[in-house]
């Protein structure tokens, strides 16, 4: 065996130490790159179709308040859009189809006349969810939502029946469909429950939103002796016309107290926000189902009569509160027989409470409403 000298051993040790030092001073190995962040989920796209301008009050304004509430609820998980002033008919189909092609996964059409156009588009876009306000036709990817307006119109009728001096009420109607006829009849029945002498005059304007026409109709009713007015149209014109004439009226669909001056006796409102939040959530979590009809009212906080002024006597307000509590509890039904039409024919037997099928087929005026229902839409 070859022997190493002490010097040799020391040299080898020095070389080893140097090698270790050189390795230690060399470039360190880079740490592994962090995993790429998962791409941010695209927001759900939802769209609304409005029959009138958004404006500052009324039907379309109320729906847009609901849309804004949904935006606030879901933040960057949701992207909403709307198209206003869309006429019912062929234009509606074009707009709804365009919104589906733009990638909206749920579309809300907010007027009765959008039913057939929406149903047609729904067949061509099975992966899109469609919702129609106030209609009755559904499909696997289309459903209906509605509000029980007749509840707050009945409450308005109680106030009207007590506040009138002529015992004549006026109603500005849009189209003679069950939705509107329910409201005319409920308004009249509410008034008659506290004042059996009540009669109601109706002027039809064949539009949902046309302030000049609405104002003209309101003035005609006032000229005909009506001193408390209600409407099923979308602008503040009826209320403002009543104020100018020194008569009374109610706000419709949203709080119109700021527009009515001394005429305002309360506003029959609808709050769509809770339904819209529920519907969007169902799309997001996959539980949305078609072929359904949802109708909410006072019990669910969707309908109410608000901003009743002090000019209304305390006992009348108390009566409104009593019946509102009954509606919330499900113990009071507006349409309970006997109900006669204005020809004297019995339409609902004594002691019978109406159901949604009966209410959905109303095609008559109750006793006390003057005139005949116009044919057509």
List the helices and strands and how they pair.
Elements: H1 6-25, E1 44-49, H2 59-74, E2 78-83, H3 90-101, E3 106-109, H4 115-124, E4 129-133, E5 142-147, H5 149-163, E6 168-173, H6 178-194, E7 199-204, H7 211-223, E8 228-231, H8 237-245, E9 248-253, H9 257-260, E10 264-270, H10 273-285, E11 293-296, E12 303-306, H11 314-329, E13 339-340, E14 346-348, H12 356-359
Parallel strand pairs: 1-2, 1-3, 3-4, 4-5, 5-11, 6-7, 6-8, 8-9, 9-10
Antiparallel strand pairs: 10-12, 13-14
Helix pairs in contact: 2-10, 3-4, 5-6, 5-11, 7-8
Largest sheet features: 6 strands, parallel
* Total strands: 14
Helix count?
A: 12
Fraction in beta strands = 15-25%
| CATH architectural group of the largest domain | 3-Layer(aba) Sandwich
User: H/E element string?
Assistant: HEHEHEHEEHEHEHEHEHEHEEHEEH
Reading side by side through the largest sheet, how are the strands ordered? 2-1-3-4-5-11
Could you tell me the mean pLDDT? 92
Tell me the radius of gyration: 32 Å
Key descriptive features of the protein:
377 residues, Rossmann fold, 2 domains, six-stranded parallel sheet, six-stranded mixed sheet, 12 helices, 40% helix, globular
Describe the fold and architecture.
There is one protein chain. The chain is α/β, with parallel strands linked by helices and 377 residues long. It has twelve helices and 14 strands. The strands form three sheets. It has a six-stranded parallel beta sheet with strand order 2-1-3-4-5-11, with helices on both faces. Strands 7-6-8-9-10-12 form a six-stranded mixed beta sheet, sandwiched between helices. Strands 13-14 form a two-stranded antiparallel sheet. α2 (59-74) links the parallel β1 and β2 (78-83).
């Amino acid at each position: 065996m070859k022997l190493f000298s002490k010097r040799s051993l020391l040299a080898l040790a020095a070389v080893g130490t140097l090698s270790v030092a050189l390795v230690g001073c060399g470039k360190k190995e880079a740490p592994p790159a962090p995993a790429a962040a998962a791409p941010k989920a695209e927001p759900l796209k939802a769209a609304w179709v409005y029959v009138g301008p958004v404006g500052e009050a009324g039907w379309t304004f109320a729906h847009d308040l609901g849309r804004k509430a949904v935006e606030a609820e879901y933040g960057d998980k949701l992207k909403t859009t709307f198209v206003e002033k869309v006429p019912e008919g062929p234009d509606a189909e074009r707009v709804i189809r365009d919104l589906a092609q733009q990638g909206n996964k749920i579309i809300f059409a907010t007027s009765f006349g959008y039913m057939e156009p929406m149903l047609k588009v729904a067949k061509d876009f099975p992966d899109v969810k469609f919702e129609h306000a106030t209609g009755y036709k559904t499909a696997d990817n289309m459903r209906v939502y509605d509000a029980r307006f007749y509840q707050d119109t009945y409450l308005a009728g109680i106030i009207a029946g007590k506040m009138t001096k002529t015992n004549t009420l006026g109603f500005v109607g849009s189209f003679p469909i069950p939705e509107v006829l329910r409201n005319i009849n409920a308004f009249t029945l509410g008034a008659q429950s506290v004042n059996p002498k009540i009669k109601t005059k109706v002027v039809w304007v064949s539009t949902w939103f046309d302030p000049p026409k609405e104002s003209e109709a309101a003035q005609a009713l006032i000229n005909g002796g009506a001193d408390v007015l209600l409407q099923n149209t979308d602008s503040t014109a009826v209320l403002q016309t009543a104020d100018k004439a020194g008569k009374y009226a109610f706000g419709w669909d949203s709080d119109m107290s700021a527009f009515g001056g001394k005429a305002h006796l309360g506003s029959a409102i609808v709050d769509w926000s809770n339904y819209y939040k529920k519907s969007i959530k169902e799309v997001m979590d996959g539980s949305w189902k078609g072929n359904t009809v949802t109708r909410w009212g006072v019990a669910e906080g969707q309908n109410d009569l608000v901003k009743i002024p002090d000019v209304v006597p305390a006992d009348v307000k108390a009566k409104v509160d009593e019946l509102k509590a009954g509606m919330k509890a499900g113990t009071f039904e507006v349409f309970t027989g006997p109900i006669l039409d204005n020809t004297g024919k019995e339409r609902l037997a004594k002691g019978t409470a109406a159901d949604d099928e009966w209410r959905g087929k109303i095609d008559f005026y109750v006793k006390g409403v003057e005139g005949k229902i116009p044919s057509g839409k």
